[in-house]
């Protein structure tokens, strides 16, 4: 648990208990994989943002706990499917579910988590919340498909890259904050500000994630460094390096993207640093963090809104 979680520690413990209860299934493999994923931990930023938003708005009931668990289930389902698509073997410092149990169980348990999330939404009984989360889930799927079609294509530009990370990452961050705003009867101004806050935090989070693939180490990250390159993903550090580097540097990166080849990783790391691509990527993340923090001016001052400010800063400062 991150220090940021402590301000909602009781709520967070209640969400963890709820997640365990909602993983119940008569099928043992579903529970085995589900518990394996939960025990792996992770930053749990998305459910944290639900809890912080609800508390910042003075919410006194319990449905924010359900929403936090729902958001985590949707996120975990996407991770299960992503790891199969990307053929990943390591996540959060442990073998991925597909590496441990195989692709078919991972996909099907991902489907279970999606459907359980929607069962929980129905129990809340708010059509506006269901509309937000169903739309977000749909857009995440679109983003993942678009990322797949963009793989091994070095011609992808910045605008296309930003569209993809908005859909595959920022959408769920935004939805986490917006559903909490709806739950707490926030004003229209507050709702839009909270949605924008989540969007900007999610964009910064993904930008830093893409930067870490070329600056981190596997032990700290909990995943293999260079995975994006091995999957032929044209992320912003590579897009900018190709645009500003020499013709030879651009061609080396383009060939690595086309081939999905991490064999040139060390040379590409040097190019990314030499061209300023890393700083360019992190500057884009800084702009999103500042924009996120600006949105919080619509909230009353509290320990919760202060923690939300710090969550945005963490999205930039993190090393894992």
UniProtKB/TrEMBL annotation:
Residue stretches in coiled coil: none
Keywords: Magnesium, Metal-binding, Transferase
GO terms, biological process: isoprenoid biosynthetic process
Cofactor(s) the protein requires to work: Mg(2+)
Top-rank taxon: Bacteria
Catalytic activity of the protein: 5 isopentenyl diphosphate + (2E,6E)-farnesyl diphosphate = all-trans-octaprenyl diphosphate + 5 diphosphate
MF GO annotations: all-trans-octaprenyl-diphosphate synthase activity; metal ion binding
EC number: 2.5.1.90
InterPro entries: Isoprenoid_synthase_dom_sf, Polyprenyl_synt, Polyprenyl_synt_CS
Role: Supplies octaprenyl diphosphate, the precursor for the side chain of the isoprenoid quinones ubiquinone and menaquinone.
Protein family membership: Belongs to the FPP/GGPP synthase family.
Name of the molecule in the record: Octaprenyl diphosphate synthase
Source organism (scientific name): Cellvibrio polysaccharolyticus
């Amino acid at each position: 648990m991150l220090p940021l979680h402590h301000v909602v520690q009781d709520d967070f413990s209640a969400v963890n208990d709820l997640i365990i209860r909602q993983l119940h299934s008569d099928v043992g493999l579903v529970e085995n994989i589900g518990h394996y994923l939960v025990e792996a931990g992770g930053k749990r930023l998305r459910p944290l943002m639900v809890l912080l938003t609800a508390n910042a708005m003075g919410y006194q009931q319990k449905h924010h706990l359900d929403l936090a668990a729902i958001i985590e289930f949707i996120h975990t389902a996407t991770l299960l499917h992503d790891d199969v698509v990307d053929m990943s073997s390591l996540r959060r410092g442990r073998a991925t579910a597909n590496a441990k149990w195989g692709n078919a169980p991972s996909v099907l348990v991902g489907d279970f988590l999606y459907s359980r999330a929607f069962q929980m939404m129905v129990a809340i009984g708010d059509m506006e919340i269901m509309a937000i989360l169903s739309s977000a889930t749909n857009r995440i799927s679109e983003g993942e498909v678009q990322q797949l079609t963009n793989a091994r294509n070095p011609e992808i530009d910045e605008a296309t890259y930003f569209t993809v990370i908005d859909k595959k990452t920022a959408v769920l961050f935004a939805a986490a904050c917006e559903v909490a705003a709806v739950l707490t009867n926030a004003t229209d101004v507050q709702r839009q500000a909270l949605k924008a806050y989540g969007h900007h935090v999610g964009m910064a989070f993904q930008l830093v994630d893409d930067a870490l693939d070329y600056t981190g180490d596997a032990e700290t990250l909990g995943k293999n460094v260079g995975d994006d390159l091995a999957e032929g993903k044209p992320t912003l550090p590579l897009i900018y390096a190709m645009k500003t580097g020499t013709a030879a540097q651009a061609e080396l990166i383009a060939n690595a993207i086309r081939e999905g080849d991490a064999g040139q990783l060390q040379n590409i790391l040097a190019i990314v640093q030499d061209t300023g691509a890393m700083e360019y990527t992190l500057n884009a993340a800084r702009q999103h963090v500042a924009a996120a923090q600006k949105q919080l001016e619509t909230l009353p001052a509290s320990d919760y809104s202060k923690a939300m400010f710090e969550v945005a800063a963490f999205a930039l400062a993190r090393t894992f």
